[in-house]
Design a protein that fits this description.
Elements (H helix, E strand, L loop, with lengths): L2 H29 L3 H16 L4 H24 L3 E2 L11 H15 L11 H16 L3 H18 L3 H23 L3 E2 L12 H30 L2
Antiparallel strand pairs: 1-2
Length: 232
């Protein structure tokens, strides 16, 4: 086998690992009834699949898990969706870890893409709008309108081919996650639109992808560089 063929094969394998890791993750959640056990088993499975992990990827886990925990609790308090198992802050123990994994999945799938280095004000604005849309409105109609509006503004801010690919990949991943969650009764939506999920799941997950590329990954890069220079 030529060197070029080996390189192409390594690239294809690296690209396949992120989507293939999703059924592994969901399978563990389905098979292991203990949410506390999953706190240990899920990270082990991700490490085996994605090793070696970079320092920036560990920072992604910490930031994504922390931010989404606060965001999730805010949304859960409105009753927009409900977890069946409520270990802390109305969610299972392993829920914050999943968001670290979703963003790691996203980063690894697009590792060959040119990364955004600058954290722009409009990315911060987009994050604030999405957060407000999810955390403020409990009425179903107003909540849906707010989410679609905030996500629409975010797409107006960032609509390059690469941004849209990030959003579409996150949407595909999110669709699988949402269907799995409602089918297994891990969570439910009081006012679903189809297949047990609301229409606003789509702009939410698209926003996850775009904000990953435009907000989280540049932020992590800045933090990593600051830590590097601090240790010099």
């Amino acid at each position: 086998m030529s060197r070029n063929s080996k390189f192409r094969n390594s690239i294809s394998i690296k690209t396949l690992i992120p989507p293939l890791s999703l059924p592994v993750t969901l399978g563990l959640i389905w098979l292991i009834p203990s949410s506390l056990a999953l706190v240990f088993l899920l990270p082990i499975s991700w490490y085996l699949l994605f090793r070696p992990l970079e320092k920036r990827e560990l920072i992604i886990f910490i930031i994504a898990g922390s931010v989404i925990t606060v965001q999730n609790y805010t949304v859960l308090r409105t009753g927009t969706f409900v977890f069946s198992e409520q270990d802390f802050l109305l969610m299972p123990y392993y829920e914050p870890l999943l968001w670290g994994y979703y963003y790691l999945n996203l980063k690894r799938f697009f590792d060959q893409q040119i990364q955004i280095e600058k954290l722009e004000l409009r990315a911060i604005t987009g994050l604030v709008l999405i957060s407000l849309a999810f955390g403020v409105f409990s009425d179903t109609d107003w909540h849906s309108l707010a989410v679609f509006t905030a996500a629409g503004i975010l797409v107006l801010f960032f609509h390059s081919k690469e941004d849209l690919l990030f959003g579409l990949y996150a949407l595909a991943m999110g669709f699988v996650v949402e269907i799995f969650g409602v089918m297994t009764k891990l969570w439910h939506y009081p006012d679903p639109d189809f297949l047990g999920i609301p229409y606003w799941f789509a702009p939410m997950w698209i926003s996850v992808g775009i904000l990953g590329r435009r907000f989280l990954f540049p932020l992590v890069r800045i933090i990593d560089l600051k830590l590097y220079h601090k240790n010099q």
